[in-house]
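Bench notes, afternoon.
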Amino acid sequence: MSDLSFGALLRGWRDRLDPADAGYARSARRRAPGLRREELAELAGLSVEYVLRLEQGRATHPSAQVVSAVARALRLTPAERDQLFRAAGLLAPRDRTVGTHVPPSIRRLVARLGDLPIGVFAADWSLLWWNDMWTALHGDPSALPPAERNLARALFGTGEGSRHLRPVSSAAGEDAFETAIVADLREAVARYPADPELAALVDELRTTSPFFAALWAVAGMEQLTGDLKTISHPELGDVTLDCDVLTVPGVDLRIVTYTAAPGTHGAGHLDLLRASRLGEAR
């Protein structure tokens, strides 16, 4: 996008957004891709005339409230939102809380990898999205209350999440997995110092888990990126897989994937998990 004016950004991102992702049905009568101007106006709580003036550069000083509303309506990433604020001559807002929105593009991407166990986590390690293969490997997270779908709480807490979590060991050594999660949580606190839910999570685990408190006192700031994990599965026994953590720039999400090299025991276990999911679907 060579023209970085507010109006050009607005038009470009409106044309990019799939109407279905914004809750509007696709129609053969649509003459152009993307969201219609009146649909953007409805989503942002603005008049169609004002959206037109913004796109044409005739409304040159939109308020922060207007820019925020437009950014939410267009499903912009934090980086894109900040760019829109700067184009409006405004300071970009500082994120105060951990984001929990999984953009439609990320959902489409991970859905294409449905033959692998995949989970999408927020910066505080709350599980936001998962597929059937994740359920086959780790159990069904939907059986848990949303607050108990947090990996740190499952590792160190005493609630339903800890009882649901299947035993996991790391090839990096004893306590390596737990140490990495605590270090990653410390980094999240540094990025979101004003998030009350994140602060409450850390306070809770420091109070209820001496192990967490001890790791919190010494953990560094390195991010969890990948490992060789062994999951104790109730039907298959020990399942050893490569676990990689992919970060999503601009939205502060983590995509956790499990894979195995062809011909390994892990690859055979993945085949069995796929077969089990197909059998349940019939």
